[in-house]
From TrEMBL:
GO MF annotations, alphabetized: protein serine/threonine kinase activity
Domain HipA-like C-terminal: 16-205
Transmembrane regions listed in the UniProt entry: none
Highest taxon of the lineage: Bacteria
A Pfam family: HipA_C
Protein name, as recorded: HipA domain-containing protein
Gene3D superfamilies for the chain: 1.10.1070.20
InterPro entries found in the cross-reference section: HipA-like_C (IPR012893), HipA_Ser/Thr_kinase (IPR052028)
């Protein structure tokens, strides 16, 4: 994709000059705003401090398709990447992800990212946070980094099926009904100022309805999602209340 001209080219040919490699997620049905919701979630994630690749919606024949730059390609060359599932197939808890972060000697900023993404996934209702949705990249010198986040999307069936609230990745054994205390306890000896990061996530997710209006999401759908979000994480530390004071 050429960001200057807006031109798309097939990924099966050599990368032309001034083009970057992107992925397109096509919207298949008019009655389900999947691509718009993913765009909204990408904006909320970025506002929460999550490292995201550039993305946008491309309208074709009246449908918005989600377009995002690939993190595993640069200047036409492939960047080595591995999912958490490939490195540790049994990883089903964010604490195990932390162990991998230590093993790969990830820098402090990547550990912060792990914490922020974990909190965001729980606050924003992304229960499909399985270990294939977390990746790492390695450069030519052998240095590992946490990749940018991807597939950041509300788990749609949570408003119809209460068991869908149960996350693929747990937090010290818990997979649903988490509290801000759980997040702070998890952060011990791993990240600094967890309360500040938690509030940043809450602030980002609080923009959901205004972003839905921006992208013309049907109010009935946005209200359904909002109803789910309102009951996901209990602020037992009263972080939101203390912020108002």
């Amino acid at each position: 994709y050429n960001t200057e001209t807006g031109e798309f080219r097939s990924g099966q040919v050599d990368l032309p000059e001034n083009f970057k490699q992107y992925i397109i997620k096509f919207k298949e049905a008019d009655d389900s705003p999947t691509t718009e919701i993913e765009m909204i979630y990408s904006e909320m994630a970025a506002a929460a401090g999550i490292d995201m690749m550039p993305c946008f919606l491309k309208e074709i024949d009246g449908r918005n398709h989600f377009v995002t730059e690939r993190f595993d390609r640069k200047n036409g060359e492939k960047i080595l990447s591995q999912t958490l599932a490939a490195i540790m197939p049994g990883a089903d808890d964010y604490m195990k992800l932390c162990w991998i972060a230590e093993t790969l000697k990830l820098p402090l900023e990547d550990k912060d990212q792990i914490f922020i993404r974990m909190v965001f996934n729980y606050v924003a209702g992304i229960s499909d946070d399985h270990n294939k949705n977390i990746s790492f990249t390695m450069d030519r010198t052998g240095v590992w980094r946490l990749s940018p986040a991807y597939d950041v999307m509300f788990t749609a069936n949570t408003w119809e099926n209460s068991s869908a609230h149960i996350h693929s990745m747990g937090v010290m054994g818990k997979r649903s009904a988490l509290t801000t205390s759980d997040f702070v306890n998890f952060a011990e000896d791993f990240v600094e100022e967890p309360e500040k990061k938690i509030l940043q996530v809450f602030d980002a997710v609080s923009s959901f309805q205004s972003l839905c209006a921006k992208y013309s999401i049907d109010k009935a759908i946005s209200d359904k999602i909002q109803h789910v979000l309102d009951g996901l994480v209990i602020d037992d530390l009263n972080l939101l209340e203390s912020k108002k004071q």
